[in-house]
């Protein structure tokens, strides 16, 4: 175990943890958008900034990918930290001014106006959708493309992602809720990727519960019997 302090409060953590996850577990309020405990930290949104003092030197850093260390002092709301977070929040809101979540977060930070030129984007480029698709689902259906102000998350070659299993994981983890999923009849569509797949019908209750393609991928990967997914999760339990 590693011992250190957060805002003067002694805490303990495992050596492989990062500062943000420990701070959140201990009840400290650090804003964040791109962090999810199910994928590797990425530090994309920059909102989780904290000030870390180590061996007499201090630095402002993202807490999601800063490893815990013995004896460090972490400060979550110094003047430097709050000023830096506000700047990051303004930049995010300038990029995606229509986001209600960003508007609410900015208001909580006391930001009443944006000093930067507003764009008309909706994605904050946190990469959570691509990372969960790679690291958790294993489908590798979406990725970052282009550079600079043209950078975006999209399927390969900007076409319908043939590897997408329409599981909806990207929809769930998106912090600004811009991917979208809809189900109509026996079809499920991941709206942003324009991916539509047929759903499988439960032989007991008759409900459509998951895309055929998704279930076949899972069945093959786990080496399950061919009839394993003939029944939905609810009826199986």
What's this, in brief?
This protein is an alpha+beta fold and 237 residues long. The model has no long low-confidence stretch (mean pLDDT 95).
Nearest-angstrom radius of gyration? 21 Å
Largest sheet: 5 strands, mixed
Distance between the termini: 39 Å
Q: Strand content of the residues, in percent?
A: 15-25%
- Principal-axes geometry comes out as globular
Structural class by helix and strand composition: alpha+beta
Average pLDDT score: 95
SSE string, helix = H, strand = E? EEHEEEHHHEEHEEEEHH
Name the quaternary structure: single chain
How would you sum up this structure, described in words?
The protein is α+β, with helices and mostly antiparallel strands and 237 residues long. The chain has two domains: 2-108, Ubiquitin-like (UB roll) (Roll), CATH 3.10.20; 128-236, no CATH class. Helices cover 27% and strands 21% of the residues. The chain has helices at 19-25, 79-95, 100-108, 128-137, 169-173, 212-222, 233-236, and strands at residues 2-6, 9-13, 49-54, 57-62, 73-75, 143-145, 152-154, 181-184, 187-190, 195-201, 208-211. Strands 2-1-5-3-4 form a five-stranded mixed sheet, with helices on both faces. The protein has a four-stranded antiparallel sheet with strand order 8-9-10-11. Strands 6-7 form a two-stranded antiparallel sheet. α2 (79-95) runs antiparallel to α3 (100-108). The radius of gyration is 21 Å and the shape is globular. The protein starts with a strand and ends with a helix.
